[in-house]
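Uracil phosphoribosyltransferase
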Amino acid sequence: MNEHVTLVDHPLVQHKLSIMRDKETSTGQFRQLLREISQFLAYEITRELPLENQAIETPMGPMDAPMLRGKKLALISILRAGNGLLDGVLELVPSARVGFVGLYRDEQTLEPVEYYFKVPDVLNERLVIAVDPMLATGNSSVAAIDRLKEAGATNIRFMCLLAAPEGIARMRQAHPDVHIVTASVDEKLNEQGYIVPGLGDAGDRMFGTK
Ligand code: URA
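Tokens:
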């Protein structure tokens, strides 16, 4: 779409996303579809991982075979909804290191406040993929990325299922170096900060809470 955003518009992704949006879709199905879509998003977001040739023997003889080079990538879940994107990605990249950032919104100041932060070491040498299904206002995602940069991350991408134009603009202004990969850019945010048409509260829908 532009150099900051990649839209994964594969027909299977769009079909699965439409089922997720439907309010009649069950918690179990929602979770399974999110896992499936996360693998398409991971395919796209890892496209430029560096490779190096290593000598192996196939049953037919020697070969210089391309293998991933460098430190394992770091997958960072922005709690709690980010956890819904973890398992699918880890199936594709089982050696990835995993971190968690927990933020809540202070009701008085409306600013994000950190309550948990645990990330892999040497973030500066890793591709860091921050995951959160919904890029809405962008406040928590931007705050999470602020913290990842403070912890040393220099090569960060952001994976989400849905993005609002307002969230993309906020991310672009705060972190123009962070590329966003999403399955949809929806119309807008409503007054409560929900994405429209969206799918409701992603955390509630995946965990069956209200
Ligand atoms: N978070 C959600 O879970 N849904 C939205 O629409 C916006 C933020």
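Residues 103 and 114 are 4 Å apart (CA to CA).
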